[in-house]
Specification:
Blueprint lengths: L8 E2 L9 H7 L9 H18 L5 E5 L3 H12 L5 E6 L2 H13 L2 E6 L8 H10 L5 E5 L1 E2 L4 E2 L2 H10 L3 E5 L11 H4 L3 E3 L13 E5 L1 H8 L12 H8 L13 H17 L1 H21 L15 E5 L6 H12 L1 E2 L1 E2 L8 E5 L7 H16 L9 H16 L1
Parallel strand pairs: 1-12, 3-4, 3-5, 5-8, 8-9
Antiparallel strand pairs: 2-10, 6-7, 9-10, 11-14, 13-14
Amino acid sequence: MSFYPPHRTLMGPGPSDVYPQVSLALARPTIGHLDPEFIRLMDEIKQLLQYAFRTDNELTLPISAPGSAGMEACFVNLIEPNDTVIVCQNGVFGGRMKENVERIGATAIMVEDSWGTAIDLDKVQAAAKQHPNAKAIAFVHAETSTGVQSDAKAICHIARQYGMLSIVDTVTGLAGIPVDVDAWGADAVYSGTQKCLSCVPGLSPVTFSDHAREVISTRKTPVQSWFLDMNLVMGYWGAGRQRAYHHTAPVNTLYALHESLTVLRDEGLEASWARHQLNHQALKAGLEAMGLQLLVAESDRLPQLNTVCVPDGIDEALVRQQLLKEFSIEIGAGLGQLAGKVWRIGLMGYASRESNVRSCVQALESALSKQSFQFPNGAAMLAIDEVYRQAASTS
């Protein structure tokens, strides 16, 4: 029998709600991955990704696999056995960076910070000074497991100061908060399509600086992965209309990415960032009016991924189950050290809109009241109203 999924509102850590026009793009006729028209589409995708990343990097493309493959592509192309990499960890995905380094046969020097806090720049500086022969500094710009953003520009500056590469995870950051690859001086940056781009999962946009390209082309050992070897992939994604076959690209998924990037370009990066911030402020106001607290300090908080502390005595899993069953709203659980302690509420891409803020808060009120959690009746909606009223009055 055919599969027909239920209709959900995706307000977890990803995937996010997909733009309707992106869903329609998936249904367009499939053409060959070396068709001249598809090559033209690839060139447009590259230009749109350069816009999204704010970069002129020639080596900018979508890896034909999810964000985890984008992460692996950056590490296996730039890091060789016996290299040393400074890895910053303040959540789950810094730990995955460590695993990539070690699987290559390199050494990871860990700079660890508490989950829910930003990466400590003084610690990074100290590690770089103590390990001057390290090849790279790797860190997560937007940590999906905690809802924290760290200072990417400052960390990339430290890497350049000590002659090291910078490897940056902005899977949850791209299109939701400022990502400025060239201004940061970042060497390798990867993201995902299923977060603030509101495309379907399955692709990982990456970009490499000219310096990173030189490092890749002058490696002493072959790239560990054949599929992710940028020396080979660029034969397919490189400039010009003559492309060398590397793999059969996911044609229709790339239609979808092109459509989502077109939506982003039409809205404008700054407008997208402002929309995510506004809806975050409204959600924050509603949650706090209910007596709920956010885990992350406001200065380090991701507007597109809100980590909410579970009140004492509340069955957090039951709340999530009720939201899914009764309201068809998905929110996320905590990961790792935060499992059972937080909810992760996403306002990413198409999901970042006023109607979702209101419906999510109302659903939480219903679920929490069933567990006898006390909150002022009507206060959350009034607080949300005030945020949007003030925004309208200043626009």
